[in-house]
Amino acid sequence: MELFDVYPLYNVTPVKAEGVYVWDENDTKYLDFYGGHGVISIGHSHPEYVKSLSEQLTKIGFYSNSIINPLQQELAHKLGKLSGCENYNLFLCNSGAEANENALKMASFETGKSRIISFDNAFHGRTSAAVVVTDNPSINAPINLQQKVTFLPLNDIELIIHEIGKGDVAAVIIEGIQGVGGLDEGTTEFFQQLQEICNKNNVLLILDEVQSGYGRSGKFFAFQHHNIQPDMITTAKGMGNGFPIGGVLIADKIKAKYGMLGTTFGGNHLACAAGISVLDVMAKEKLMENVKEVYAYFLQEIATVPKIKKVKGKGLMLGVEFDFEVGELRKKLIFDKHIFTGGSNNKNLLRILPPLSAKKEHVDIFINALKEILG
Ligand SMILES: Cc1ncc(COP(=O)(O)O)c(C=O)c1O
Question: What are the tens digits of pLDDT across the range 298-347?
Fold first, then answer.
């Protein structure tokens, strides 16, 4: 059997990783400024994380959600505390798309309505409801298109008011900072007005923090830069540092019923051990403080690089925009300078998502490589 060939691949085969570095099969060392789509939060193969998962595996790796699993409560308590979202309840699942799928379903259960407002260039995943609120017709199959969604531009509150006024909107889903779309984001004024309009009209506000969450923006969730309280917050990627885990934080006012949501694998022992270890390391190593410090340094240093049009994003979720397409630049960064970066829907933008433990010296390596390539 061969693999179903859906991924265009770079010709690199990583075999080991540590901190912000990855090594390939020829022992070539790469600086990981992409974290496998923003997944690596506390750093590759963090020793405490490895210890915690290994120990958990020798005890119990999995049992279903029909028994008590105290690790789920420990994860929920620690997540509530570190994120400042103690007045939410946690539903655990396995991926970002699944988190969004469940949040959208909850919004429809709760409001009895079915239309969703999403935003131009949004990416929310590939499952049925998540893909339909993703602004990319090429990844929507006919079966997905039965659901009702309206795409609006970011930061146009009048259009939101007009659409919500029609009375059939269950939820607005928005990324804290757009990832795949190219690092655009709502203004504080927009987020605050959006929250107010949703509250007044029985529309639930879902913040997709799958990529922008878990400290990546310098705050635990990117929406916390705007002083709002969404009805639901979805998370995945950095939550497990590579172990598949996702979650929906659901405001206390939304009440659970047995059987309303469910999953076989979500919240299993091993996933919880990964999630707990990530939170413990984030707190112990003050990674959100580190993100702020390294971000300030990045801004200062990137200003010395020629040909850059704009720097977008916050913290260690950054987009460096040029006035040319960056495909060739990314290839040179990987194959000549051994640095991983990402792309986005905006072909002129390099997406930078290093582990939250990256240091100024790693920024220096990236900046010097850019300068050498760009002349
Ligand atoms: C903002 C956002 N939401 C949802 C997803 C989907 O997550 P997953 O690939 O874990 O299903 C992604 C993945 O890139 C994302 O960036």
Answer: 999 999 999 999 999 999 999 999 999 999 999 999 999 999 999 999 99
| C-alpha 97 – ligand 1 centre gap (Å) | 6
CATH code (residue 81): 3.40.640.10
Does 104 contact ligand 1 (Cβ within 6 A)? no
Domain co-membership, 168 together with 316: no
pTM over 0.90: yes
For residues 216 and 324, state if they share a domain: no
**Contact 321/347 with Cβ under 8 angstroms?**
no
Q: Ligand 1 atom closest to Cα of 236?
A: 10
Based on the domain organization, do 66 and 205 belong to the same domain? yes
Nearest CA to ligand 1 atom 7: 96
pLDDT value for 55:
98
DSSP state of 346: S
Domain for residue 2, yes or no?
no
* Helix/strand/coil (H/E/C) assignment for every residue in 115-174: EEEEECCCCCCCCHHHHHCCCCHHHCCHHHHHCCEEEECCCCHHHHHHHHCCCCEEEEEE
Q: What is the pLDDT of residues 201-219, one digit of tens each?
A: 999 999 999 999 999 999 9
96 lines ligand 1 (CB under 6 A): yes
Residue 211 Cβ inside 6 Å of ligand 1? The answer reads: yes
Same domain, 174 and 83: yes
> Which residues is 313 bridged to in the sheet?
318
